[in-house]
Amino acid sequence: MARESSVARVSEEDLVVRLPGQPKVLFGLMEVFMFLLALVLSCSFCYEIEVDLAGPGCSSVGGGAFTELGPFYPTGDGHGLRINSMSWNKASNLLFVDSPAGVGWDETTASDMLVFLLRWFNKFPELKARHLFLTGESYAGHYIPQLADAIHSYNRQSSGFKINVKGIAIGNPLLKLDTDTSASYDFLWYHGIISDERRHAIIRQCDFTSLPNISKECIEALTEVSLANMYVNVYDVLLDACFPSIIEQELRLKKMATQMSMGVDVCMKHERQLYFNLPAVQHALHANRTSLPYQWSMCSTLVNYSGIDGNINMLPILKRIIQNKTYVWISSGDQDSVVTLLGSRTLVRELAHDLNFSTTLPYGPWFHKNQVGGWVTEYGKILTFATVRGAAQMVPYAQPSRALHIFSSFVRGRRLPNSTHYSPDE
């Protein structure tokens, strides 16, 4: 990026120079902080680093940027930031976008995002020739394909600039509601979280092909399952849950005020919420200029969503994307019980069959740092499915090194390594 020319086009009210409690960094701030709040009406936060989107009602900036794959994590007391050594900006420029305002999905999200990208490229024309990769997780299984499809439609009609979308990568994606929902309850049973009786009740009472219209008996069966796993982190069934009582929180703040917890910080979401509600942080981000009467939270309950979009089968859209020569990578953290590898693997295989693709890489382990990172298969040299061993739905949060390796391989157009050989640039 031509940093000086880019800075010259960014007004003071757009540019974030530094965040409160931010540690010293080796990269230039222009490479990381640039919020362009006025570019599109439905964009509540626009964070310059390629494109990442979060699930309905939940924030990409709060989740993706500050909990998973951005350059900083919140400190234990929620009043500062610490460096994420596995940030994805090691492999690419990144752009996090929350859309629409309030975040989530609505029927105009793909067209709004397309308008945003076109305005983005107009403001930074030096980026027009670069490859664009779209990534996201969970409900992004809907709006990443929808956005890619909208981009291809625009490119077909444009006689001038065409967006150079190269590939899409989606983690634990919701692709087909009935398949993914059924697989979720199978996963809970396979992991011993629900009993044989509860699983059999779901099989007898629930027809997931009719979602969201399900019987009273099915609702009762699913309610019993919800009670059975209420103390489990459903996004990572092996990870401890966070129960921050007042006393427990006070102890945590004393112990973690300046240091990182060992392993995965299961309470990072609370630290993140503390940080984003600091007045100095909101001022630095040019956010909450209207002094809203409620606090920022990772997931908003202020936007109402229709359940209709959740029933859309994404496989036909993914088929069109692949037919436009755009690479598709689907990955699954293997400890997620919400959108499981069982459903995703089944649907990717179904998509490959519909495209008449042969298997170009047989299913087998991939390696990172001399250990099995997960398992991977490829169809037609353009469609990849990979699991990430020991990962939650939020893969960069639970397995940051393996997540960065997958992302780096994706943007470089490389297959994941099928041997323990490790090179320094992995």
Automatic annotation (TrEMBL):
<dbReference type="InterPro" id="IPR001563">
    <property type="entry name" value="Peptidase_S10"/>
</dbReference>
<dbReference type="InterPro" id="IPR018202">
    <property type="entry name" value="Ser_caboxypep_ser_AS"/>
</dbReference>
<protein>
    <recommendedName>
        <fullName>Carboxypeptidase</fullName>
        <ecNumber>3.4.16.-</ecNumber>
    </recommendedName>
</protein>
<keyword id="KW-0645">Protease</keyword>
<keyword id="KW-0121">Carboxypeptidase</keyword>
<dbReference type="Pfam" id="PF00450">
    <property type="entry name" value="Peptidase_S10"/>
</dbReference>
<dbReference type="GO" id="GO:0004185">
    <property type="term" value="F:serine-type carboxypeptidase activity"/>
</dbReference>
<comment type="similarity">
    <text>Belongs to the peptidase S10 family.</text>
</comment>
<dbReference type="GO" id="GO:0006508">
    <property type="term" value="P:proteolysis"/>
</dbReference>
<dbReference type="InterPro" id="IPR029058">
    <property type="entry name" value="AB_hydrolase_fold"/>
</dbReference>
<dbReference type="GO" id="GO:0005576">
    <property type="term" value="C:extracellular region"/>
</dbReference>
<keyword id="KW-0378">Hydrolase</keyword>
<keyword id="KW-0964">Secreted</keyword>
